[in-house]
Structure prediction request, 251 residues.
Amino acid sequence: MNDASLAGRVALVTGASSGIGRATARRLARAGAVVVVAARRAELCAQVVAEIEAAGGRASAHPADVTDYAQMEGLVAHVLERYGRLDCAFNNAGKIVGAGALHEADPAGFRAAFDLNAGGVFNTLRTQLPAMIRAGRGAIVVNAALSGLRGRPNLGLYSAAKAAALALAQVAAQEAGPHGVRVNAIAPGYVRSEAWNAILGPHADALAQGVPQRRIGSPEEVAETVLWLLGDGASYVNGAVIPIDGGLRLA
Prediction:
């Protein structure tokens, strides 16, 4: 991994206050990027910025909710005003919403799942792409989850919303590619984050047995793949969906 390609670049990370987002923000900063930390909770954004700065990196916080289009417009405007450009973005905010059997699902849960996991991807792409297209370069990674590739029982609403997120990323890759902007997606499997622990943590050992590598992944492992996709080492990778799952999709 050649970190030098990200040195000095301005990177925006949504959902950056915990889990995969936090790990990726920290990793991008270690690679020399200037990181804009975005999430709903201001105090947690500030905490991540403090961690980055304590390690010698550069970062700033801008609290924002990806489900609010106006806030995403404001976030990108803030980045452009403060730094003059937006070089790369990791659109990561998402959450399992409406878990349970599909025939028992609440219609409100369906809307909530799509507002966050698909609507949030639309809002981020829609506001980031124009700035990158004007600049003639850029790279975006969308966190779509393994459930977006393979619908899973009791996660029907989440799976459908993540599949929509994948479709948005792939369309964006085709439309923005001619303008020098790459858009790729990752599809993590079981990853031990705060949100994951809250929902599936008690079942970790049993779930790990279904993974060919027989373990649960870490946010830091996911961050390494995002780093590569955003950097020049992946300069001819566009529209890809990369599973980060220890082989779970094959099980």
